Amino acid sequence: xxxxxxxxxxxxxxxxxxxxxxxxxxxxxxxxxxxxxxxxxxxxxxxxxxxxxxxxxxxxxxxxxxxxxxxxxxxxxxxxxxxxxxxxxxxxxxxxxxxxxxxxxxxxxxxxxxxxxxxxxxxxxxxxxxxxxxxxxxxxxxxxxxxxxxxx
Length: 152
Ligand SMILES: Nc1ncnc2c1ncn2[C@@H]1O[C@H](COP(=O)(O)OP(=O)(O)O)[C@@H](O)[C@H]1O
Ligand SMILES: [Mg+2]
Hints:
Heat Shock Protein 90; binds adenosine-5'-diphosphate; binds magnesium ion; 3 helices; five-stranded mixed sheet; about 25% strand; single chain; alpha+beta
């Protein structure tokens, strides 16, 4: 596994817990994909250009069927056995990245591996609004925090 993070990445505004969720989903998928492949390599790169911070997550796992590539961001699309996959990871990740005005793209070849490319735009400051929920009743604030996780 290799992790390569450029020094001096610019600061951007983000909902950190949501972006962590995206990384966990995509890295979790990569680890699943690597289980069945002989070559097991995972590489994560973070670098900036004038428009965005790019995060590339690349694995040498099983790859994605050509017929599936347009479906993987659909809610509940999964190729994993029941109990293993919910099919929600990429759909939620896509919503989170969109809420940050970013993009997420995938390049994959069956049997070779997959590359997920996330772009988080710089200067998104003005577009962010945050919903503050103040309530001392755990039955109220826990579900609200779970179901309103993204900023719009
Ligand atoms: N890195 C990857 N390599 C191969 N297939 C992948 C990869 N990431 C996602 N997929 C495919 O996309 C599907 C949907 O992923 P996801 O939304 O995270 O749901 P889940 O992981 O619960 O199946 C997976 O079931 C798998 O078929
Ligand atoms: Mg997943």
